[in-house]
Amino acid sequence: MVDIWQPAEPTTEWSSELQDKVRDFGYSSHANYNSMSLLRTTELYDGQSPSLSSSRTTNQTTFQSDSNRKYKEAVRQLPSRACIDLLVHTFFSDFNWQYDLLDEESFREQLVSWREISYSDLQAGFERLPLGTLVFPALLFQVLAHALLFHPPDDGMIGSLITMADMSFVDLGREYSDTGADLLALLGKKDITIAMVQAGLLRASFLKSSGKVIESWHALGAAIRDAQEIGLHTGRNVPDQSTVEPNCEKKGVSVVGHKVWVVLHIWDAHMAVVLGRPIATDIQIDRFAHTIENEEKRRELFSHWQTETNPPRPFDVILAGYHVAYRYFKDIHQIEHNGANSQDYPIVEHINASIKRNLELFPSWCRLENPDTKFDRFPACQWLPVAREGLSSLIHFVILALHRPFIFSVASSRTEALKAGISILRAQERLFELTEPRHCKVFNPVYASFDAIVLITALCLVFPIEDHEQLRECIDVVEKGIQRLGIIGQSNSMAMSAHSIVCNLYHRLRCRLGLFETAEDAPVWIAPNNNAGLSHDAPSQLSFDAVIPPRPIHDLFFDHISIAQIPSTNTPETLPLDPLTMNVTDRYNFDGDFSDASFWSLLNELNH
């Protein structure tokens, strides 16, 4: 006999007139103990078990004629088939491996399905289109937008899409991404699919690369809520009519939802630490993995990263980074929230030691030092050398973020943060050599280099480094990092803003160390002897005990850190500050919404 109070199994299909009415109240269909669950249990107990397919395979939402018109106008902005094919190829060859969000074969199958939609079907309205087909253009626009950030700029066919003077691929990509977001908003939240979540995350990524970091964080939050609405956080098998999923979906085992939720969580935790924002997600990776009942599929997805013999896949790199370092983002976030409390320092030491031990778990193909490059030559692993440097950069960022709250109060944290910053800039240097200039329009190289340069320069300014070899290395990586930001800044507004900040900081460091130019234009310095060579405004004469360490990306985008009274330039492409040509007497204050206790405020005091 069935116990009427026993919650219904979440995977049981049910539908009734009451279902949509109750869902309008906002109840989750994936919880077991709310009013909706009781109604579902009662309905199942009454013997009603109609399939969801009737309400899910076609979109039953009543759209107004205005919405139909807007939808048709939006999809008609898609470029020609030839242009789409070129850009889709660029997306999967140059970008998709970074987050492994889409399966190429399934995506192309859905693209074929979209192209089979007749003009009369589109004119007839949404009722004639399956939900997955209806959603696909929103995802396609985001794919095209990202591809335009990477596509060769001299491609004449894609260049024909540029219809106005001074318009760039980035501008066109921004329009495509906006259109995709408009389509998602038009479709609403009544019937969310995994493809909507994928499109939402790609939207957040594009906004981030466009310098709209606050908007990106909100877009990420919306994607997380969409994912939770369909239960991706539970690890349950979520039917999705979009079919933009790995082929294992056709074998009855869903893993795309697991991959998407892992990526969403890492993004969420990473942005929370970088920007000082709250964390909205949580994951216990082992428990989450075991929601895949098929043991073979579970191992294939969550344990493949440890193999030494089989070629790695992009998601393997993501999982490797998670198991070694990203898993500690939540702890680091809590430490920062506690305000660098000395009672938390044993946790810092424990995490630091754990990361170093975890690095020994890496398979040889992704070791940060002296990796085995046997798979790099495989055609399916052409992305691996770049991914390895990105992995190194992000793992060392975790270490830098771990010690950042204590850099002005604990000597060992200064040492670890300095080493991590140097490792980040070395990885970014190698990464820059492996990629082409067009690949630098995304946010990754800007974020990593800016964080590291600011932290290294801050530490060298505040705490004189007596080890001349280490000081030489700091100067070397900072100068090369500034040069890279200058190059990237020619086509990336974020890099240009960051470049001005680090130039001003480095100019102060040159004055601090007594750097001079030789006849060969190679910088040398006269190291201070017992502080005798320091200027009267040397930072060492001020107390940094109560100073808030810089959080560069947060300070740039949320506190609007900038340089006051920057000298003007004749062309917008010209970078206004060069620390090697600035007059030694030049003093530029930092502007922004930062507090009196901030690092930037204290540096401004040194000018007076």
TrEMBL record:
Keywords: Nucleus, Transcription, Transcription regulation. The keyword tRNA-binding does not apply. The keyword Nucleus applies. InterPro entries: Sec_Metabolite_Reg, XnlR_reg_dom. Residues 48-66 have a biased composition (Polar residues). GO terms for molecular function: DNA binding; zinc ion binding. This is Xylanolytic transcriptional activator regulatory domain-containing protein. It comes from Aspergillus sclerotialis.
